[in-house]
Design goal:
Number of strands: 35
Largest sheet: 8 strands, parallel, barrel
CATH architecture of the largest domain: Alpha-Beta Barrel
Radius of gyration: 29 Å
Strand order of the largest sheet: 1-2-3-4-5-6-7-10
Structural class: alpha/beta
Helix content: 10-25%
Distance between the termini: 39 Å
CATH topology of the largest domain: TIM Barrel
Number of helices: 17
CATH superfamily of the largest domain: Aldolase class I
């Protein structure tokens, strides 16, 4: 049976998930969590929850899945050790090389590779296994047909429910460059959920152009299981306990072969953006995009049929309560929220701040009963407890190999303890999640109530320690951190469209169409973060002829070995500390540092053969789907479009063709002119403008309308 894995942004959600039937729960601590705005856990709260989870046979995974700066390495290793000592069953990391160093320092720790690492193919899985990871959380874009090969190497975890990032995970810089909050540090401000226009007919009206519906795989979980997925993951560390409990209950019912309709409604009501999509693992479907509604739209419960006094009558089978929340849609678009006013025959009355129309759709977005239900759930472990109270013998209690003896019992002179008295006493298990089935053997003894209570508490404490023991703590160990050989470089490299000449030492060419793959002699081939088996099959001839590959994913390590070519580790590797940089340099000819570092931070990591993005186009997102809803018949197939936000900022949207159809890249509204310190200069001319090539080390001199990016202020 596959593991059902639930999210927890706080203690209430964690216990709701556990008691609804989750096999495992993942959560974050107060540092290094990719959901920094969640309440998260302190170490003591983690330890308490982990022990209850273990008592019930569930596991707890701790996400330390943000990027780690060089000066944070000591704190990171300490936090990982504390999480393990508190009872974590695995640690999730984004930085694959930092994971290798953690495993080297603490071999006892189990490592899972976060979806932020972008593992999407068997090449990436091979590297994860080599670095000591026992499981990978697949990129959400990984095709289901590619999963079996990955599952043969190590455990596979896949998302089945929850919010979808519009960008390939771990490679989104939109919030960072446009909003000064880094998603790689758990501070994403979700600019993808804002309104944009696109300069293409039919898409030029303001809409949530990049907002995706929530994922709900539903019964297709069986296809994931058939492909080798061992852990089914629900997203939602920012969601309510009601949502978490409902989602767990829904998938628990599906996995157990029980009716799931009621649980689905509960989940739908608790949070639902876009009426759900099956996601990209099964190919882009018609519900992937949620252009008209960005937020929670709940479950449809009726429609407005008439005005009744000052209120509106909603015809419905649902019986609301005060405290319920509603949203009104018209033509698929949100009109306003509404509030329950009074019950009525065949429906109920609503009050609304806006004028409603006949036929408006009423959707339930907050069910007051759901939260109460989630927090009232109980999950117990049944145990058999045998209590013996015989005159002249010590009090004795036994359960699952745990035994405790107490004071010697005295024969009762009057009012002896009955079996019912003892059973009632031992039925009190305080806060333990135990359901004891109690058998009593007694011959009529007298035991003071205080003594019996103390004996019971001592026994259950011993039983708890035996059934859910505290973790034997790992001693603190000092990791052996590499010493980088810092060097100043005069090398330069350029990323350009295929066939566009560049006067730099290294030319990295982007293919606009995989079907007509051709490179300039001596050029390096640019590879995007999502690289499927089908992509590899199409590009195999080019891979064999290329000088090398510039790869945005760490899968490039084993791909380069397979094809015997050189490797340039791209900015998508997010190298932000000496451990990661040194490890990358062991396998790559050249490496690019994170583009969210300051020049000072870059210089501290600028060993020989390192580059930084100094200027030109600055890619913010990789979209592994069509933002036009695959409207291929009417597509003008332009290479570059523009997303324009409500402030008038225009973000170039570049199209290219891959094996599965068109994909897109979003670029910053201003070109980058960050400049460069000790490292080599990497400039990006993906959109075709070669102006920056005139001065790659000081792009500001030739790009007056530009941004320095994070050159002066890092967001990591």
């Amino acid at each position: 049976m596959a593991e059902l894995l639930a999210p927890a942004g706080d203690e209430r959600s964690a216990y709701a998930a556990l008691r609804a039937g989750a096999d495992a729960v993942y959560l974050g601590l107060t540092r290094f969590s990719a959901r920094e705005s969640a309440e998260n856990f302190c170490v003591s709260a983690l330890e308490k929850f982990a022990r209850e989870a273990h008592l019930l046979g569930a596991k707890v995974y701790v996400a330390l899945n943000t990027l780690v700066k060089d000066e944070e390495l000591t704190a990171f290793f300490a936090q990982a050790r504390e999480a393990w000592n508190a009872g974590a069953d695995a640690i999730l990391l984004q930085d694959i090389f930092l994971g290798r160093k953690l495993k080297e320092t603490y071999p006892e720790i189990t490592l899972h590779l976060s979806t932020q690492a972008g593992c999407c193919n068997v090449n990436g899985a091979q590297l994860a296994k080599e670095c000591g990871f026992s499981r990978v959380v697949l990129a959400r874009e990984t095709p289901i047909e590619d999963i079996p090969a990955i599952a043969q190497l190590l455990e596979v975890e896949a998302f089945v429910q929850g919010a979808l990032c519009t960008c390939f995970s771990g490679q989104c810089y939109f919030s960072s460059f446009a909003g000064n909050n880094s998603g790689n540090r758990g501070r994403c401000k979700q600019p993808c959920r804002k309104k944009y226009t696109i300069d293409r007919a039919g898409f030029d009206a303001p809409a949530y152009a990049l907002s995706l519906s929530d994922l709900s795989v539903g019964e297709d979980v069986q296809k994931f299981i058939g492909a080798g997925v061992v852990s089914l993951k629900i997203e939602g560390r920012m969601r309510s306990p009601a949502y978490v409990a409902a989602a767990v209950s829904y998938y628990r019912a599906l996995l157990d072969g029980k009716p799931a309709g009621e649980a689905f409604s509960e989940m739908w009501r608790a949070y639902n953006r876009g009426d759900y999509t099956r996601g990209l693992a099964f190919g882009q479907d018609a519900r992937l995009l949620s252009r008209d509604v960005q937020g929670h739209i709940g479950e449809k419960v009726g429609e407005i049929v008439r005005l009744q006094g000052k209120d509106y009558f909603c015809k419905s089978d649902y019986s609301p309560e005060h405290g319920d929340g509603f949203k009104v849609l018209r033509g698929g678009k949100e009109v306003c929220g509404a509030r329950f006013s009074a019950p009525a025959r065949d429906g109920f009355l609503l009050t609304s701040p806006e004028k409603l129309r006949i036929g408006d759709e009423v959707r339930l977005t907050l069910c007051a009963k759901s939260e109460e239900h989630a927090l009232a759930l109980r999950r117990l472990r049944t145990v058999d407890v045998c209590v013996t109270l015989l005159a002249g013998q010590p009090m004795r209690a036994v359960c699952e190999g745990v035994e405790l003896e107490g004071e010697v019992c005295e024969a009762a002179k009057n009012a002896p303890l009955s079996e019912a008295d003892v059973r009632e006493n031992f039925s009190k298990v305080d806060v333990l999640s135990l359901a004891p089935r109690i058998t009593v053997q007694t011959d009529g003894v007298f035991v003071p109530k205080s003594a019996l209570n103390a004996f019971r508490r001592a026994f259950y404490e011993r039983l708890y320690d035996a059934l859910s023991p505290a973790r034997t703590p790992l001693p603190a160990r000092t990791p052996s951190l590499p010493a980088l050989s810092l060097a100043e470089s005069t090398q330069s490299a350029a990323i350009v469209p295929a066939g566009l000449a560049a006067n730099t030492d290294l030319v990295i060419e982007k293919l606009s169409d995989y079907q007509s793959a051709a490179l300039t002699k001596g050029a390096w081939l640019y590879l995007p973060p999502l690289f499927t088996q089908a992509d590899e099959a199409l590009l195999a001839p080019v891979l064999r002829e290329a000088e090398g590959i510039y790869c945005e994913g760490t899968y490039g390590v084993f791909l380069a070995k397979k094809y015997g070519c050189k490797l340039f580790a791209g900015t998508g590797w997010n190298l932000s500390n000496r451990v990661a940089v040194a490890s990358a340099l062991e396998t790559a000819e050249y490496v690019a540092l994170s583009k969210e570092l300051t020049v000072r931070e870059q210089d501290a990591l600028s060993a020989a053969r390192t580059f930084v993005l100094s200027g030109g186009d600055c890619k913010l997102m990789d979209l592994c789907y069509c933002p036009f809803g695959k409207s291929c018949r009417t597509c003008d197939r332009r290479v570059v479009y523009h997303l324009t936000d409500e402030a008038g900022r225009a973000f170039p949207l570049r199209r290219y063709a891959a094996a599965d159809g068109c994909r897109f890249e979003v670029y910053n509204c201003l070109p980058l002119a960050a400049g460069v310190g000790r490292a080599g200069a990497l400039v990006d001319c993906s959109l075709g403008d070669k102006t920056v090539l005139k001065n790659v080390r000081d792009p500001a001199a030739v790009l007056p309308a530009s941004t320095r990016g994070h050159g002066a202020r890092s967001l990591l």
